[in-house]
Design a protein that fits this description.
Blueprint: H1 2-14, H2 35-49, E1 56-61, H3 65-68, H4 78-90, H5 95-104, H6 112-117, E2 121-127, H7 150-159, H8 168-178, E3 190-196, H9 198-211, E4 215-217, H10 230-239, E5 250-252
Parallel strand pairs: 1-2, 2-3, 4-5
Length: about 250
């Protein structure tokens, strides 16, 4: 009983005080965009569009932001965008490919949030969940101008055999983007800062291990996929040109 009471008190300290100016929106159950997340995205867009050159917009971004900030470009509906994303994922599309399509169909991704906030200054503090920390990919880059164009999207859709099955609304949005006379916009009023990532965590783990007297080796900060069985790790390590591991004297991060 004491343990549960302690947890309740700790959570209670995190609850908003009465009359707080902070608003909390919940959505994207199971990491999928939904109506609650759409309402949150609309509120965020409205706030950003009301800012002036005297304002500073502080944005906290982490993995999962793509699902938490859905704002399809009309006439694309949330359901159509969900369906297309699921089809791409089911056919093996990478996170980079998924986010390229998401950005092309979104009002806020691919720098859309930064554009909505202009002329206010924007500072984004980013927790990366993507290998290599490409800021334009993390949460589909709401404060980073997209470097992709319509042809990139069509190439992805062709690769997975989905171009012919696109809803009319998606074709309309892609056609409008392709004929936009203004072209891509810049985000010169934005500062994007990575404050947490796999590479930063590995470096800190290595440093702490060395403080404890271990010889720590970071094998890679770019490995993706399922973990290999322990019996194969030493072989894989030697294949990369390293000497055999000595478990008693080494710590792998």
């Amino acid at each position: 009983c004491i343990w549960w009471m302690t947890i309740w008190l700790q959570k209670g300290e995190m609850l908003l005080k009465p009359h707080s100016r902070v608003q909390v929106f919940e959505g994207a159950e199971d990491n999928l965009p939904d109506r609650d997340a759409l309402c949150a995205a609309q509120a965020i867009q409205q706030l950003a569009e009301g800012l002036t050159a005297d304002d500073l917009l502080l944005v906290l971004i982490s993995g999962g932001g793509s699902a938490l900030l859905p704002a399809p470009i009309p006439p694309v509906t949330l359901e159509e965008k969900q369906t297309l994303t699921k089809l791409l994922a089911a056919r093996g599309a990478t996170i980079q490919e998924l986010n390229t399509i998401r950005k092309a169909l979104s009002q806020l991704k691919g720098g859309g949030l930064a554009q909505a906030a202009y002329p206010a200054q924007v500072v984004s503090l980013i927790l990366s969940d993507v290998v290599g920390d490409p800021v334009e990919v993390i949460a589909s880059g709401p404060t980073v101008a997209s470097a992709h164009n319509v042809q990139d999207c069509l190439h992805i859709l062709n690769r997975y055999g989905l171009r012919a099955a696109l809803p009319r609304s998606v074709k309309t949005v892609l056609a409008q983007a392709d004929s936009d006379p203004h072209g891509p916009y810049s985000c010169g009023h934005v500062l994007n800062v990575i404050i947490g990532s796999n590479a930063l965590a590995l470096a800190e783990a290595q440093q702490q291990a060395e403080v404890l007297g271990y010889r720590a080796v970071v094998l890679s900060a770019a490995m993706q996929g399922w973990d290999a069985p322990a019996a194969h790790r030493a072989d894989r390590y030697q294949c990369h040109g390293h000497p055999p591991l000595v478990p008693e004297a080494s710590v792998m991060a």
